[in-house]
Amino acid sequence: MASNVTITDIAKELNTTPATVSRALNNHPSISEETRTRVLEAAKRLNYRPNTIASSLRSGKSHLIGVLIPSAKINFFGSVVHGIESLASQHGYNVLIYQSNEKREFEQKGLQAFLNARVDGILVSMAKETHDYTHFREVKATGTPLVFFDRVNDDLNVPSVVIDDYKGAFCATEHLIKKGYQRIAHIAGPQHIKLFNNRLRGYLGALQAYNLPIDFNIIYTGDISIEAGKRAVEHFLTLEKKPDAVFSVEDFTALGAMKALKEHDISIPDQFGVIGFANEEFGEHTTPSLSTLDQQTVAMGEAAFKLLFEQINMKTSENMQPRKIVLDPIPVFRQSSAHP
């Protein structure tokens, strides 16, 4: 039979009413288990596919959510999405994923695609090239529930889930200090993104707490990439007073730093300590293994979905202060910072 089988076709097959078939397919308590089984078997035999569009029009919900991430190549975001999907599926939601490739124009296209698909809500981690947030304000204006995770902008007054980036950066820098490193550099991320600014502040806070001098010559602000890590180390090695350790804003940048140090035959961790942030999967497989901060990615994804689910099912339209969930980073100290 053709794929456009309807409830009426199933009813004719079983010599019953469309209403009975509909109730059976929706597990209505008035339908006996025997009838429900007969309907499900007939639906499978006839290759019945429910009309999700019609269903969403009746219920007012599509049971779809959109997830906008900067890059699918970064394990961090894949792991967060895993947390989102595991909880979403338990609540009967399917997930649409769009990656911005760190560009505002793709971010804007992704948001529009979600709105066109009539998603019930949107989860977002912002692109690093985003400076103008008009497109997010436009989404808010539609009334579509919106939640940020990891990369957020508090000025937008949107619920969010973040890691305590200041605390993590302080912990990473403090770890290097306690390991005996004397001159600790920092490879920073784009400072218009709050989490990268918080990590810079955490680094500075640790230096101040331990009465170590702050030298802006050993703070390298750039991109977040392997190449940025390499460029930063090349810069550090041109200085008269060279650093002996680096806290990198995230793991790919830390990996670039390690590559450059090896190219200059600088021993890690004996001559130079390295610590990153994110706990990307590759970190435990590098030589030496990379010290880092774990960001509780699955927990972040689950918390983000819970916030979105709350918004989707909110009964009141009152202007409530958006919730912000802050998770603690977990230190993962490995060989790259194990100063003898």
Automatic annotation (TrEMBL):
Molecular functions (GO terms): DNA-binding transcription factor activity; transcription cis-regulatory region binding
Residues covered by the HTH lacI-type domain: 5-59
Presence of the UniProt keyword Transcription in the record: yes
Species of the source: Filimonas zeae
Record's keyword terms, sorted: DNA-binding, Transcription, Transcription regulation
Gene3D superfamilies, A to Z: 3.40.50.2300, lambda repressor-like DNA-binding domains (1.10.260.40)
Protein name: LacI family transcriptional regulator
UniProt keyword DNA-binding, yes or no: yes
InterPro entries: HTH_LacI, Lambda_DNA-bd_dom_sf, Peripla_BP/Lac1_sug-bd_dom, Peripla_BP_I
SUPFAM superfamilies documented for this protein: lambda repressor-like DNA-binding domains (SSF47413), Periplasmic binding protein-like I (SSF53822)
